[in-house]
């Protein structure tokens, strides 16, 4: 194992007593939740236990653990992050433009609402298509029941 590799994930118990952190693990956990620290679940432990990434800790705590913050590196990472955000926005715009285009020419036998439903259905993934199908079938069944009870009520009033 390489001794140059630093531990990056810490449990609340491992952080007890460090500078700029509460003294008890339960209070550290509370602080981590309140400040949305980066966390991951510890596998192999009974119950739910988390460990936290050092980058979420206060700066003095990071330094006490042997980590340093390099301002130039932070600025570089922020620049790279902005580039990635810009790229994602471009891709999102391309996807939106693609989905805004009509899927095909509307068949004459469909109403505008039916065509909108078909186009929306086709844009969904398979799981969502199944959900939409079951919802529409449930609505159709409900309509059938209402029509049947309405028909029965009309027959009863005529008789």
Assign the CATH topology of the largest domain: Arc Repressor Mutant, subunit A
Supply the helix-strand structural class. Answer: mainly alpha
Q: How many DSSP E strands?
A: 3
What is the radius of gyration computed over CA atoms, rounded to a whole number of angstroms? 29 Å
Strand fraction: 5-15%
Text of the CATH class of the largest domain: Mainly Alpha
Distance between the termini: 90 Å
Task: Give the strand order, joined by hyphens, for the main sheet.
Answer: 1-3-2
The CATH architecture of the largest domain: Orthogonal Bundle
Can you say what the CATH homologous superfamily of the largest domain is? Winged helix-like DNA-binding domain superfamily/Winged helix DNA-binding domain
Q: Main sheet? A: 3 strands, antiparallel
Helix content: 55-70%
Number of helices: 6
Summed up, the domain count is 3
What does this structure look like?
The protein has 3 domains: 9-69, Orthogonal Bundle (Arc Repressor Mutant, subunit A), CATH 1.10.10; 70-101; 102-159. 60% of the residues lie in helices and 6% in strands. Strands 1-3-2 form a 3-stranded antiparallel β-sheet. It contains 6 helices and 3 strands. The radius of gyration is 29 Å and the shape is elongated. It has 159 residues and is mostly helical. The mean pLDDT is 83. Residues 71-98 form a coiled coil. Residues 6-73 form the HTH Mu-type domain. This is Mu DNA-binding domain protein.
């Amino acid at each position: 194992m390489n001794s140059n590799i630093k531990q990056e994930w810490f449990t609340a118990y491992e952080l007890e007593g460090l500078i700029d952190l509460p003294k008890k693990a339960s209070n550290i956990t509370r602080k981590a939740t309140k400040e949305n620290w980066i966390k991951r679940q510890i596998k192999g432990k009974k119950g739910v236990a988390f460990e936290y990434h050092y980058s979420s800790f206060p700066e003095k705590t990071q330094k006490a653990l042997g980590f340093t913050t390099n301002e130039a590196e932070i600025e570089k990472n922020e620049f790279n992050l902005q580039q990635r955000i810009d790229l994602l926005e471009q891709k999102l715009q391309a996807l939106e433009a693609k989905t805004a285009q009509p899927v095909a020419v509307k068949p004459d036998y469909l109403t505008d609402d039916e065509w909108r439903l078909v186009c929306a259905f086709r844009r969904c993934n398979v799981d969502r298509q199944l959900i939409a199908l079951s919802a529409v079938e449930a609505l159709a069944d409900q309509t059938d029941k209402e029509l049947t009870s309405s028909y029965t009520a009309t027959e009863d009033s005529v008789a």
